[in-house]
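Incident log, structure service

09:12 report received: a user says their structure output differs between two submissions of the same chain.
09:20 pulled the input from the user's history:
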Amino acid sequence: MSRTAPRPLAGLSYRQDWSDLLFVHWAVSPDAVAGFFPQGTRPDTFDGRTFVGLVFFEMRNLAFARGPALPVLGRFPEINVRLYSVDVHGRRGVVFLSLDCARLLPVFAARAAYRLPYHWASARRLRFDDRVLYTVRRRCSRGPRSRVRADLAGERRNPDALGDFLTARWGLHAATRGGTYYWPLWHGPWRLREAGLLSLDDELVAAATGLPVAMSSRPVSVLYSSGLHVRFSARLPV
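09:34 re-ran on a clean worker, output below:
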């Protein structure tokens, strides 16, 4: 795993800023989630385990290529459930099982253009000194919801081997009608700290995976980052 991007971007398609990121992870058997991976990819493992991630953050300054930020979108929370992948070329990435977003336009665009499993949701982020609260409920009948409170006063540190595995991901894998693609991204090194999970009431992980890990077991990792600037390049076939 590399804490810096292993390759330069070939062109630029999108820019965005991520802030107040909270990473919550559970360890699972690779066999339990193998069916969710697109063709040409498989679960990436760490000490024989793979992981389900529940990630909360706020999106800002979304822009196309080198154009200005889209003011109509402003800033908005996004919450995703993700798995960890490696493809036949050895490129490590993530596979998104669901992405809940508080803006309808990105939901339509991402589903139509990239076949990513976005959902329109009611979501908010509140910050109180060294504590953060995220709440989300999907805008559909009996839609799944999630609510998390975390203490962010933990010590700043460089990621350990597991932290690198979970955060040093330089692209995503997804399936389209034409096959599987890898979408590279670039950002600076993560500045992480351990976070204290004060409470978590989540239905998103079970809705996406069928696994009750968020309710039945403690997370193996809870990390926080204040944020960074992210760039995406063109997609590559797997």
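09:41 both user submissions now match this output. Likely a transient worker issue. Closing.
09:42 reviewer note: The mean pLDDT is 93. The chain has one domain: 14-237.
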